[in-house]
Amino acid sequence: MSRPLIISDCDEVLLYMVTPFKEWLAESQGVEFRMVGNDFSQALRWQESGEILAPEDIWKKLGLFFDTEMYRQNPIPGAIEGINTLAEEADVVILTNLVDKRQQMRTEQLAGHGLNARVFTNQGPKGPALQNILAEYNPSKAIFIDDLAQHHRSARETIEEITTLHLCGEPMLAPHIDCAHTSGHADARIDDWSEALPWLRNQLEKEKA
User: Fold this and answer.
1) pLDDT digits (tens, 9 = 90+) for 120-170
2) Does the pTM of the predicted model rise above 0.90?
3) What region does 167 belong to: left with phi over 0, alpha with psi -120 to 50, or beta?
4) Maximum Cα–Cα distance for the chain, whole Å?
5) What are phi and psi of 44, to 5 degrees?
6) How far apart are CA 122 and CA 138, in angstroms?
7) Is the dihedral of CA 2, 6, 89, 189 positive or negative?
């Protein structure tokens, strides 16, 4: 009999990303990160001129950060312990929006924090990638955890039956981003793992009933 499957994002769900990214930008890249509203593309400005970075410069900074600074990323409180607890009852995989060449880096990064899980990399909306993962695992129940509303929308538009939890553990972002629960694309919005874990375990218990 197949087990339930939990597919979790990494950045801002399991590990902080924006906080160390902001610190690194200020320390060595001459860039200020200030989130105003929910538009990430408007958050990065050159310290010297105050001008917003061009999109291609933002992608370069993100790429350089993931290539050289991933060691700065620390776990969100309760996240690693929570996922490992869930792994006692379900299969757990990670679906992260990184280019494929960073798949091994992310796998090793998470292992270094005590989470040994299969990592899938993806670019763009996550619905098709989720569909492929579900086709491989054929789980009895699927639960998807992500911090961005657009990925929950993609999941719901692509997959007929999937339980979704919108979780953003980064206080710098959480108040600003669109809420997938409000829009009807997530079953719940919980930004704290101390509350998310009981909710997730309850979803697994429902599957057994």
Assistant:
1) 999 999 999 999 999 999 999 999 999 999 999 999 999 989 999 999 999
2) yes
3) beta
4) 60
5) -105, 125
6) 20
7) negative
157-189 exposure pattern, b = at least 16 Cβ within 10 A, e = fewer: ebbeebbbbbbbbbebbbeebeebbeeebbbbb
Whether the CB-CB separation of 143 and 5 falls below 8 Å is answered with: yes
Neighbours of 42 (CB within 10 A): 13
The 8-class DSSP code of residue 12 comes to T
Which residue is it, tokens 């593309």?
41
Question: What whole-number distance in Å separates Cα of residue 198 and Cα of residue 93?
Answer: 19
Q: Which residues pair with 7 in a beta bridge?
A: 93, 144
Q: Reduced to 3 states, what is the DSSP secondary structure of residue 192?
A: coil
